[in-house]
Amino acid sequence: MPQIIKNLADQEYRLAPGVGSTDLKNFYHSPGKFNYERRNHSTTPILVNGSAAHFKVLEPDKFDEVYICITGSPRKDSKQFKQIEQDNPGKIILKEPDWVPMEKMRESVLENKDAFNLLNAGDPEVSVFWDHKGHPCKGRIDWLRPLPGQGHCHVELKTTAKDVWPISDFERQADQSFWDFQAGWYQEGLHQNGIIVTATIFIWVQNKPPYNCTVVEMEQTWVQSGRNQANQTMDQLIHWKAQPEENRWNQHPKGIHYADKPKWSVREYAY
Fold it and tell me: According to the 3-state scheme, what is the secondary structure of 208-240?
């Protein structure tokens, strides 16, 4: 049954049943990758830092409930670090080299007038649940903002080591990282819950100096294309799951495959 839940803890969302956009993206690349990732959950430093940055920017009032920031960068096997763990049970410890950039990213977002205006109304980390042909699906939207009159604006926060300009860099990154696919999947879930998205906007902030922040609106035809592709991939996933396990395809197609220079390449042919 379609459902929208606000203020759902991140861990509760992750444990909830349902196919998310990352699951679909993995399956799109190969069922083998989908299978592996579903069975081997890991929390890498990149994921920890990315989640912490989202808390710092989108839910700063909840940041201290989950994380503890410490000075310096003590080794995890040091007496100092173990004492901090003992004094802060259940909290994620962030060393100074990790939490200082988050402070800078938050400052950069708040100093960007357009980003600030987007985040001054609405709800952070909105969990969306729905069914696709009887199979549970889910999405977690960074920020959902009602628009005057009609419709909603879906805002996604993306952190990157790269600078955030020119706009062609965003277009390439969005295409390669399946951001249209993700946005379309979320839009599908919201639509199933009776919410129409009329604007999809990305706040793209650099996670190292000079911490530049750029706000980019993704054209809705592009989002719809990602939505169509996500739904098609979900259909393929359902079909794959219906096969006897011994008949499921798990890897990339065999054989030698032909590759041509991509049209978007910025380098000319050399002769």
Answer: CCCCCEEEEEECHHHHHHHHHHHHHHHHHHHHH
